[in-house]
Design brief:
Blueprint (H helix, E strand, L loop, with lengths): L5 E4 L5 H12 L3 E6 L6 H9 L5 E5 L5 H15 L4 E4 L14 H29 L2 E6 L2 H5 L5 H21 L4 E8 L5 H4 L3 H10 L8 H12 L10 E4 L6
Parallel strand pairs: 1-2, 1-4, 2-3, 4-5, 5-6, 6-7
The chain binds NADP nicotinamide-adenine-dinucleotide phosphate.
Length: 246
Amino acid sequence: MEEKEVVLVTGGSRGIGKEIALKYAKNGYNIVLNYIIDDTDFEGITNEFKQYGAEVLWVKADVSNSEQVDEMVKKAIEKFGKIDVLVNNAGITKDTLLMRMKEEDFDRVININLKGTFLVTKAVIPYMMKQRQGRIISLASVVGVAGNAGQSNYAASKAGIIGFTKSVAKEVASRNIRVNCVAPGFIATDMTSVLSDSVKESINAQIPMKRMGTPEDVANVVYFLGSSDSSYVTGQTIHIDGGMLM
Ligand code: NAP
């Protein structure tokens, strides 16, 4: 039997991350799921993935903490021996206008979204180099390209991910490691459920496709970027936004 490929998804306990992991499970991967809050249906999610023959390793780690990140990657390698695909998905928002934004809220968003992407990528890349192959996909956002009032910290973190992706893609392209990111628009998850109906309506009005995206819409593109169907694609930012930004 052919050895299964392995994907590590940060922030894989819910929302877009969980859907991405499910997509990989359905396509024959073993899964490393990272999370931070213990209030998750570990058993239910594991059983869902098992239906597709996937083995699941849960690892609790704060992606902004380098020791926890190194430990997470070590556990993944101990269990599966390799990481073929890394999805840097963990992310948070702490929205408010710049004038009211506390330094700690700026730092927290940058530390989890951007520094977390740096730390996990840095921890995984040596193994991908040894394997002589790998694919890394990070979650940016349309907000990182267009900006958004009330999200200067989040937009800076996501714009940072785009620059980071291009730079690392150039560093490791010759090692057969591809590095890309996706820029979702508004996707229906816990992150956007806090928006009021009137805000959601005005968002939908700005989207040519007239609807919010689903986690599946994002998972499909992330899966494509981790598959051999995108074998000549690196350093790119693929927008998944119903045409919001073109
Ligand atoms: P979500 O439902 O709020 O889920 C966030 C995930 O990140 C959770 O699994 C959470 O784990 C994890 N997480 C948070 N802090 C962490 C930390 N310090 N270390 C490890 N994991 C941590 O968010 P989502 O909507 O699925 O978003 C996923 C990604 O897509 C994010 O990077 C987000 O910025 C990006 N994105 C989302 C949208 C959107 O409209 N939803 C649009 C563009 C981009 P716990 O469950 O353990 O808390």
